[in-house]
Amino acid sequence: MWKNGRNGQRYFDYIVKILDQNLPDPSDVRNDVPIALPYPFNVHYTLELALPESWTFDELHIKNNAYQFDFDPVVNGANISLHFSLRTFGDHIPAEAIRQYKEDYKNIADKISIRLSRTPDAGGSFGENNASPEASAPVHVSLADWKACWPAIWLTFFFSLLFSRLFQYLNTRGEETLYAPGSGYPLGGWLILLGISIASVLVFELVRLIQADYFSYSSWTVYGNAGGISLQYLYLTQLAVQLTLISGAGALLFWFLKKRDIFPRMFLWYAGILLSGRMLLLVLFYTIPVPASLTGYRSVLALALVRSGIYTIAWVGFILRSGQVKSTFLEKAPHHMW
């Protein structure tokens, strides 16, 4: 179970999955929103380790009106027993306790996610007197240890092919305009704000794509361990929606800057796709069984749907009624100019 790290280091990772899957992650939850807890829930878990040498662990005890967590390590030389227990006293953590729960969650996560690392001496051996053992939360895996999630990579590859062909097709289309090409107003006024909003959506979705780490095999296995194949399909659906929003925003920004005649219609289509994608993810997260650690994400999706709804209603109304829009986006596709 020991793996090879950098500079000859050997390490061993372990996660108490039953606690990790039932303890909701509050990282994306606002401080004024309650979080659901599995209730009743009362688990006692013991991890027995026979190690090459002795390790040291710090105990942790947390108790409040919503939950109680205890971590009691018992060290007997190289034989170690790690005792975990988690008990809930209600079905949710109230909004006023979310700030404290975020601090507690970090401390608990450090205990239920363990990394033991050993460093060799100058001769390359792992002698007891030369080992430098420590217990901590898992650190980022080095590039040499990184494994690719091929389902996500292949999905992205075929999506890129499909979207590139779709973009080429749409880019050659034209729309009827009230005024002649080349006579349009320059971009300005409220249109500048519209362009900034499209660019903001593009940047925001790109950042979320990077943070989600879709292309790492470890993320794929985490979803599989938490909810099986159905949760992994949900994982790929999230990726597909994210790729659609990124590609659509990028194409919209291109047509916006080119003042293309198809921009107003394409924005209407994108607004519909944006709302449909948000709604699809929200419905899936309520219909597919998800571990308790992901239930808090439902409120995040609901909030994202509301924000997207406000965004689309405001800008769709502007595009449909604005004379500035009708007088600005007049440029035809290159082949239509001949």
Can you give a write-up of this model?
With 338 residues, the chain is α+β, with helices and mostly antiparallel strands. The chain is elongated, with a radius of gyration of 26 Å. The longest helix is centred in the C-terminal third of the chain and has 41 residues, at 217-257. It folds into two domains: 3-144, Sandwich (Jelly Rolls); 147-337, no CATH class. It has helices at 17-20, 98-112, 150-171, 190-212, 217-257, 263-287, 292-321, 323-326; strands at 3-4, 10-15, 35-36, 42-50, 60-63, 67-76, 79-88, 92-93, 113-118, 134-136. The chain starts with a strand and ends in a 12-residue tail after the last helix. The strands form three sheets. Strands 1-2-9-10 form a four-stranded antiparallel sheet. It has a four-stranded antiparallel sheet with strand order 4-7-6-5, with helices on one face.
